[in-house]
Amino acid sequence: MSALTVAAARYAIGAPRSFAEFADRQRAWLQEARALGAQVAVLPEYLSLELAATFEPAIAGDLHASLAATQRYHADWCALFAGLACETGMHVAAGTFLLDVGGRYRNRAYVFAPDGGRLWQDKLALTGFEKGARTIEPGDALKAFAIGPVRAGVAVCYDIEFPLPVRAQCEAGARLLLVPSCTDTEAGATRVRVGCLARALENRCFVVQSVTAGEAPWSPALDVNTGEAAIYAPMDVGLPADGVVARTTGAERWAVARLDFAALEASRERAQVANDRDWPAQARPGLVHARLQAFDGAD
């Protein structure tokens, strides 16, 4: 395995007046990531909803109307990020696009390769906000993919809080998890951060989390945004004791780090604990179910 320089955005939500203005902004952000040495750049969840600002306030301020209106940009979105991946030479995880799949929407995370290829991962678990919309549905497929010699997967925001799908991606070889996220409370930001740390620990993998930042009072989905972009690793010998490889602070827009996957693999041999290797022990028959035990004094 080799090393990759990855960058996670702390993306300040804007209010573009046109798709062209949105495109210029994405180009500037990704060129900045490339100038920092990034080979992989991760943008945040719900990025497509920034485009709702291109419509009149009555549409921008209504979730259902904005979801319907932004569909006209889908082809342009794909063309934009495919072009930017090629232009910058990076793999670009372009946040998520809420895509109409036959009257309902899926929160779809696209990844674009510099050779023109693309793939996607739908969000699997819906938050209360998404369920409440009554028009967003979960995805039904889990994927892993290759970025050069490194296998990767995408877990969209809330998905990183669930161990089994991420474990399945890692069992398919993923050692890099890309996590586009959007949280509006400190509690939400903490949940996703803790999920990232837990999945890195369990699977001996790197986790790259992008976030939205700032306020967008014109949008019911992007209204308030919290959290810091960060890159996480297992907490073990030769790796950060707190699991944090890099994190934005202050006005920083990107968390950037060079990740050595060969060293990560080698660290297993001198690990204090090896949660990834010891994972199957949880499936022992006596541990699958808990019994209610009375205080009867018996051994």
TrEMBL record:
<dbReference type="Pfam" id="PF00795">
    <property type="entry name" value="CN_hydrolase"/>
</dbReference>
<dbReference type="InterPro" id="IPR003010">
    <property type="entry name" value="C-N_Hydrolase"/>
</dbReference>
<feature type="domain" description="CN hydrolase">
    <location>
        <begin position="4"/>
        <end position="261"/>
    </location>
</feature>
<comment type="similarity">
    <text>Belongs to the carbon-nitrogen hydrolase superfamily. NIT1/NIT2 family.</text>
</comment>
<dbReference type="InterPro" id="IPR001110">
    <property type="entry name" value="UPF0012_CS"/>
</dbReference>
<dbReference type="InterPro" id="IPR036526">
    <property type="entry name" value="C-N_Hydrolase_sf"/>
</dbReference>
<protein>
    <submittedName>
        <fullName>Nitrilase</fullName>
    </submittedName>
</protein>
